[in-house]
Amino acid sequence: MPSTFDLYKKFAALPQGKRLFSIAYGQKAPYFSSIHLEVQEMKPHLGQVKIPKRRSVKNHIGTIHAIAACNGLEAAMGLLAEATCPPDMRWLPKGMEVSYLAKSTTALTCTAESTETDWANGPDVPIKVKAVTTDGTVTVEGTIHLWVTPKR
Q1: pLDDT band, residue 41 (cuts 50/70/90)
Q2: CA dist 138 to 6, 66, 90, Å?
Q3: What pTM was computed for the model?
Q4: Which helix H or strand E contains 83, and what residues bound it?
Q5: Which of 7, 18, 47, 108 could, after both became Cys, cross-link 51 (CB 3.0–4.6 A)?
Q6: InterPro entries, from UniProt (predicted)?
C-alpha cells in the first residue's frame, strides 16, 4: 500500500491534485474535514494546511475558534510525521502545548516543522507548530509531542 506521502506526491503533480488530496486527507481522519482544510505542503520536516474562515469554524465573536486552529495544527503535524517518520517506525501524538497569542480574524495557515535532530533524539519527538493569519500575525503557537517507536 502506498504511503500517505507517496499519495501526496502523486496527487500534487495533477491539476487540482492538492485539492483532491485535501478532501481525501479530511476523510481519512474525519475530524479534519470539519475545518475544511486545504493541504498546502507536505514534505519531510514540514507540513502545512490552510483553514478557510467559514461559519463552521467561527466562535461567538466571529474569529476562528482556538480548537479549530489546534485541529489545523494537528493536521499539519500529521502530514509532517507521515513524510518524515522512517518506514520501520510508527508515531503517535502524546501531547500538545499551545499558546493563544492573538485573535484569528482571517483564514489561517497552520505549519508544523521539525529537524533531523528532533527525530534523532526520539522516541519523544517535539514538533513546532504555529497558526498565522493572512497578514502574518501568529495567533497560535506551540509544540506537539510525538512518541516514535519501532513497528511490531
Answers
A1: very high
A2: 31, 13, 30
A3: 0.94
A4: helix 66-84
A5: 108
A6: DUF4442, HotDog_dom_sf
